[in-house]
Amino acid sequence: MGSFRREKDEEEDGPTNAYQNLEKTSVLQETRTFNETPVNARKCIHILTKILYLINQGEVLVPREATDCFFAMTKLFQSKDVVLRRMVYLGIKELSSIAEDVIIVTSSLTKDMTGKEDLYRAAAIRALCSITDNTMLQAVERYMKQCIVDKNAAVSCAALVSSLRLAYTAGDVVKRWANEAQEALNSDNVMVQYHALGLLYHIRKSDRLAVSKLVNKLTRNAMKSPYAVCMLIRIACKLIEEEDIPAEELADSPLYTFIESCLRHKSEMVIYEAAHAIVNLKNTNPRMLSPAFSILQLFCGSPKATMRFAAVRTLNKVAMTHPAAVTTCNLDLEGLITDQNRSVATLAITTLLKTGAESSVERLMKQISTFVAEISDEFKVVVVQAICALCTKYPRKHTVLMNFLSGMLREEGGLEYKTSIVDTIITIIEENVDAKESGLSHLCEFIEDCEHVSLAVRILHLLGKEGPFAVTPSKYIRFIYNRVILESPVVRAAAVTAMAQFGASCPALLSNILVLLGRCQMDPDDEVRDRATYYLNILNTAKPELYKNYIIERENCSLALLEKALSEHLHGDLQTHFDISVVPKAAIVKPEINNDVMLVTSSAPRAPKITREEESAARLAQLPGIQVLGPIHRSTPPIQLTESETEYTVQCIKHIFGRHVVFQFDCVNTLSDQFLENVRVELTLPEGFTQCAVIPCLKLPYNELQTTFVIVEFPQEVCFSTATFGATLRFAVKDCDPNTGEPDSDEGYDDEYMLEDLEITVADQIQKTKKTNFQVAWDAADSEEWLQAEDTFVLSAVNNLQDAVNTIIKILGLGAANLSEKVPEGTHLHTLHCSGTFRGGVEVLVRAKLALSEGVTLNLTVRSTDQEVAELITAAIG
Amino acid sequence: MGMLHNLADLIKVKKDKMTILVLGLNNSGKSTIVNHFKKSSEQVAIMVPTVGFLVEQFYTNNVSINAIDMSGATRYRNLWEHQFKNCQGIMYVIDSSDRMRFVVVKDELELVLQHPDVSNRTVPILFYGNKSDLEDSLSNVKIAAALGLEKIKEKPWHICSSNAISGEGLDEGVQWLVQQIRFAVLSNRYGAKITKHHK
C-alpha cells in the first residue's frame, strides 16, 4: 500500500522529463536532419541529446544503427557551432565502441586538437583517444606528446588522463611519453600535477626500482597539488607493504618519514590520507600509531560532516586490528553517537561495540535500536558485522544480541542485509553451544516468512545438520514440513533432505519421517520426488552404515572434476569399476580479501570461484601425456623459488596425481634486453623418484609469464615419498632490443640460474576432508580393513595447546572436524580430530590427544586403509 | 531575363556557401591544394596523410567554400560515397606523374560517376593534373585521353594542370568550378520556376 501511494506522488509533483517517452527508431530517423545543408545547429543539438539520453538509459544500438548514426554525425563537422561540436565529441565517445570505421574522424579530431579554439581541444583529445586503436596511435603520437606538455591546464589534463586510458591497451606506445609526463609533473596546476603522477606511476608500475626512485625524488621536493601528495602517500604505502619492512626499521625509513611528515601538511585531505595510511600499515608499533590516531581523534570533533565521517569510518575499519589505540578515541566516539548524521552515528556506535567493555553492550544496543530502522541497508550490514564481532568476544551476551538480530530479521531488508544477519546467527551457533537452541528457533521462525530462496535453502541445510542433535529434535520437523507444503520446488527439495537427516540421526523419529517422506513422493516436482524416493529407500533398509555414507556424510566431490573423471572412464576400459575416491573433494573456496589501501585497483571482473584443482585440471589437460596419470589429486599453493627482485622470478606449483607429481614452474623474465628460449628446470632427484618428462617453455620474452613443467613419478614405497629436490633453471639467452623485444641476432648462449630447493611434504599429498560427524567415522574405521598406527611424542618447541594444534594441522595438511581445531582457553587436555585423503584415494583419520605439561605431550593415533600411509603420517610428526 | 539572372546571381548565390568534395588517390595532393586556398595564417607547414576526412573552409572568387577533403588511402575510399549527396561540385585530383596508377584512378572515377547520388544530378567535376612541375608528368590532353574523359557527356567537366606547392594553375580551376556551380544552381531554380508555371 505504501509503495502504491508513493508512485502516485511521483506522478503528480515536479516537472516531467522531456525525454521520458523517446523511441529509439524514431530518434534514429531524426538523424537524417544531420545531412541537411546548412546545418541547423539547434535542431541537431537536440537530436544528439536524445541519442545520448537513450544510450545512457541502457538502450542498445546494434552496430548497423550505430554506424549509420555515426556517419550522419560526421557531417556535423561542417558546422562552426561550438556547442554542437562539443555534443558531437560526446556522441563520438558514446558510439566509438559500437559503430564500425570510427577511425575516419581521426584527422578531423586531430585538427581540432591542435587548433586554436581552446574550447575544442580538451574534448577533442578525449574523443580521439576513444576512437584510436593501436595501429592509428603511431600517427597521433606526436600530437599527444605536444598536448601533454601544453600550457593550457585543461588540455594537458585531458591528454594525461586519455594516455592513462590508452595505457591499458597500448602500454608500449604510452611508455614513450614518460618524458612529457615528467615535464607535466612540474606544472603549477594542481590537477595536471596529479594526473601526471598517475600516468608516470602507471608507466613504471611493473618496475619496482623505478617506482621507488620516483617516490624518493618526489618526497624530497614537496609537490603543490594535494591530490598528487595523496596519491604519493598511497604509492609509498604500497612500497612499504611490498618490502615488508619490520616495525623497528620502518620508523627510520624515508618512505615512512614522508608519510609521517604529511600529518602536518596544510591540506586536510592530505592529513587524513596520511593518518589513514599509517593506521592501515601492517608493521607498526604504538609509538608510530599515536600521532595518526590523535589526528583522527581531532577530525572526530571537526565541524565538517565529511571529516567526521572519514575519521569514524577509518576508526571503525581498524577497530579490530588496533583495539587499544581506538579505545583512546572512545570519548570522542561517545560524543558522535547522537550525531545528526545517521551514518556517522552508526559507525561511531559500531566502533564502540567492537572495542567497548562488556558492561556497555546493552546500553549501546538500546541506542542503536532507536534508529536502526532509519539507516540504509549498507549501514545495517555494518551494524550486523559489529554484532558478529561482539558475539565472539563476549559469548555470554548472546541472548541480548540474538534477540536483537531476530528483531532485525523480521524487518524489511534486501538480500545482502538478510544474508549477513543469517551468517552472523550461524556463526554464533557454530561457536557457542549455549546459543544453538535459541538461534535455531529464530531461524525457524525466519524461514516461515522468507522471500529469499537461497537463504531458505541454507537454513534448511543447517537445520538438517544441527537439528537432530538438539534437545527436542521433533519441534523442528513441523517447521521443515511446512516448507514442503508451502514453498517453491527448490526449497521443497532442501526440506526433504533436511527431514531425511532427522530420520537418519534420530531413531525415535524414524517412523514419523517415513510417513512424511512417503507423502513427498506425490510431489509435482521431479527433483523433490526423486529425493524423497532415494531417502525413503535408504531409511527403509534400516542399516545405519548406509545412513552414514549416503545421508549424513555425503561425499561432496568437485563436480567439474567428477564429470571429467566419468567421461574419461566412459572412453576407457569399461571392465573396471569407477572409483569415486580418486576424485578430489571440493575444497571450500575462501573469498579473496581485497586490500583496498591502494584504490587504484584493476577493473577486471573477479573470476568465478573455482578451486585450485579445477583451475589446474583445465590447464594441465593441454599437456601431452598427462591423461595416463589419471585425475588430479590436489594442487599446492604457489611457492617462490627466487627472491622477488631478481633477474628471473620463478614460482612453483606442485600438482599431485595418484602416482606422479607434476611440477609447474611459472617463470617471468624481468630483463628487458634479454629474450630467453628453451627454458626448462632441471631437478636433482632423490633416490626412488624417476623423471618421466620435461616440457620446456620455448620462448620467454620480457615481462611475460610462461610455464614449464616437469613430471616425476613417486617411488613405490610410500615412506620415501617425502623428499627435497635441488632445482636449476636452464635456458638459452639471446640479446634483444628493449623497445621492440626482437632478438638482435639468431645466436645465443646457454646459461643457468640456481633456484631454491623444492620439497614434497606429507601435507602436499593429502587433500583435506571435513567430517561433520567424526566419531561415527572413527568408530566405523575400527574394522579389519583399517590399519592403525600409534605413537607418543613430546613437542618441546611449542608451549601452548593452540600452537600445537596449528602445527599438527599444518604438517599433516588434514581438515579438522567438529571445531576441534579450536582449543578452549584454560584447559590442559585437548583432543584434535582430523581427516583427509592421501593420494591414490587412501582415507586417513587422525586422533591427536594433547596434554600440556612442560612442553606438550602428544599421543597420535592414525587410522588408514594403508599401513604405509599410516606410518608415514606418524613419522611426519617426529 | 539575363539582367535578372545577374541580379539573382548577386543577391542569392554569394550568400550561399558552396560545398565541394575533394577526391583522388592517396598522395595526389588533395590536402595540399586545400591548404593553398586557406588564409596564410591558417596554413599548415607539414602535410600528413589524412585519416578519414577533414572539413576546411576558405574564401575565393567571392564565395565561401566548404571543402570536404577525403582521405585517398585504399581503406578509406569507401567513405567517399557518404558525402556525395550533399556536395555541389567535385574536385578530382590526379598525380600526373604517377602513370602506374592511372588504371586505379580511372576505376575509382567510374565508381564515382556510376553512383546514384552523382549520376542523377548535374555535378560539375574539376580535374587537376597535379604535380605538373615533375619531369615525367603527363600533359592535360594525355591524361584526359588516358582516363577517357571524353565519355562524360551529361556533366560539365574541366581539366587543368596544377602545381599545389607553388599554387600554379589552382585559381584557374577553382574559378571554373565556382562558375559552373552558380550556373547549376540558377538553372535548377529556373527549371523549378518553369514547372511551376506549367502547373
TrEMBL record, chain A:
Q: Which SUPFAM superfamilies match?
A: ARM repeat (SSF48371), Clathrin adaptor appendage domain (SSF49348), Subdomain of clathrin and coatomer appendage domain (SSF55711)
Give any GO molecular function from the UniProt entry.
structural molecule activity
Which residue numbers delimit the Coatomer gamma subunit appendage Ig-like subdomain domain?
Answer: 615-761
Coatomer subunit gamma C-terminal domain: residues covered: 763-877
Q: Write out the annotated subcellular location.
A: Cytoplasm; Golgi apparatus membrane; Cytoplasmic vesicle, COPI-coated vesicle membrane; Endoplasmic reticulum
GO cellular component: a single term:
endoplasmic reticulum
A biological process term (GO) from this entry: intracellular protein transport
InterPro entries (UniProt xref): ARM-like, ARM-type_fold, Clathrin/coatomer_adapt-like_N, Clathrin_app_Ig-like_sf, Coatomer/calthrin_app_sub_C, Coatomer_g_Cpla, Coatomer_gsu, Coatomer_gsu_app_Ig-like_dom
According to the entry, every stretch annotated as the Clathrin/coatomer adaptor adaptin-like N-terminal domain falls at 24-542
For membrane topology, the record states: Peripheral membrane protein
Q: Which UniProt keywords apply?
A: Cytoplasm, Cytoplasmic vesicle, Endoplasmic reticulum, ER-Golgi transport, Golgi apparatus, Membrane, Protein transport, Repeat, Transport
Q: What does this protein do?
A: The coatomer is a cytosolic protein complex that binds to dilysine motifs and reversibly associates with Golgi non-clathrin-coated vesicles, which further mediate biosynthetic protein transport from the ER, via the Golgi up to the trans Golgi network. Coatomer complex is required for budding from Golgi membranes, and is essential for the retrograde Golgi-to-ER transport of dilysine-tagged proteins. Required for limiting lipid storage in lipid droplets. Involved in the expansion of luminal extracellular matrices and apical membrane during tubulogenesis.
Name the family the entry cites: Belongs to the COPG family.
Q: How does it assemble?
A: Oligomeric complex that consists of at least the alpha, beta, beta', gamma, delta, epsilon and zeta subunits.
Q: What is this protein called?
A: Coatomer subunit gamma
Q: Which organism is it from?
A: Drosophila busckii
Organism classification, top ranks? Eukaryota, Metazoa, Ecdysozoa, Arthropoda, Hexapoda
UniProtKB/TrEMBL annotation, chain B:
Q: What is its main location?
A: membrane
Q: Where does GTP bind?
A: G24, L25, N26, N27, S28, G29, K30, S31, G72, N130, K131, S132, D133
Highest taxon of source: Eukaryota
PROSITE patterns for the chain: ARF (PS51417)
Location(s) in or outside the cell: Cell projection, Cilium membrane; Cytoplasm, Cytoskeleton, Cilium axoneme; Cytoplasm, Cytoskeleton, Cilium basal body
Give the CC-aspect GO terms: axoneme; ciliary membrane
Report the GO molecular function annotations.
GTP binding; GTPase activity; metal ion binding
Annotated GO biological processes are:
cell projection organization; establishment of localization in cell; system development; vesicle-mediated transport
The topology of this chain with respect to the membrane is: Peripheral membrane protein
Q: Does the keyword Cell membrane apply?
A: yes
Q: Where does Mg(2+) bind?
A: S31, T50
Show the coiled coil region(s).
Answer: none
Q: Does the keyword Cytoplasm apply?
A: yes
UniProt keyword terms in alphabetical order: Cell membrane, Cell projection, Cilium biogenesis/degradation, Cytoplasm, Cytoskeleton, GTP-binding, Lipoprotein, Magnesium, Membrane, Metal-binding, Myristate, Nucleotide-binding
| Family in the record | Belongs to the small GTPase superfamily. Arf family.
Supply the name of the protein.
ADP-ribosylation factor-like protein 6
